[in-house]
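Morning run. Coffee first, then this:
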Amino acid sequence: MSDSLQQDREPQLEATGSVGFDALDMGELERSLRKPRTLMSVFLSGMVTLLTLLALVPLFSVIIMLFYRGGSNLTASNFWTLPPVPFEEGGGFGNALVGTLVMVGIAGLISVPFGILAAVFLAELGPDSRVASVVRFCAKVLSGFPSILAGVFAYGAVVMVTGGFSAWAGGIALSILMLPIVMLTAEEAIRMVPSKMREASIGMGATQTQTVWRILLPTAMPGILTGVMLAVARAAGETAPLLFTALFSNYWIVTNNQLDLAQPTASMAVLIYYFSGVPFENQVEICWSAALVLVLMVLVVNLIGKSFSPRTTER
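And here it is:
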């Protein structure tokens, strides 16, 4: 039986021009590895690998320097002590850490609800309307907006109106930078929800509002959280907007056991900016430690945001 099958297959192989592995000319295969096209492919692959490694050198050199300079002087007391004055030993960046968390929290409370509501309108309520096109275009322009201009806007709209630098002004400036990131990523996440889920919800008698709040948003929540984490990571490392809005302070934002948001507020980025140019060794060491903590904070937030991405692609 097998002999007859082999005899039947041989004419087919001859007709189609297909041959077995035994019939391959290994010499021709070896010579093909030395052809100009193959050599060019190997050369370009090597160049891409080399250039990629060279591009990573500045990144890893900065990280190594941060761990070397900042990690050697980082102690637990740095997280709950005030910055040192010139010629003073010790100190930390506790007030700057709290100020950063407070202002980023204010920015999140402003940008996340508005960003998600705008994304619902862009993705579901009026995706093809003229208003949606204008809003989408403005969001894309705003995503590449220079951060210092957001600070100038918040300075004119908040600082000059209220008459002083404050955490509120810093949070508003950061929310301007966070809003387009949250809005665009949330819109894309909502669009990725399968249309069958929308149709099933409507078929069961749900209204459009119920479909959005009970089907679309819960399903798109991993993608929305990814955008929120990316926006938080960007806002935490901004310096220029806070120079115009929150300025800096050597004291805690808490006075008389109450959170006072209407006063100049310290932040990690501004502390690094100020202390990096002073001639006092202790403050420079605090600057390195604060830079290490800030980089680790941004890295952790990015990793948290990245952890939600695979869930979005699976839906």
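The beta strands are 254-255, 258-259. Good start to the day.
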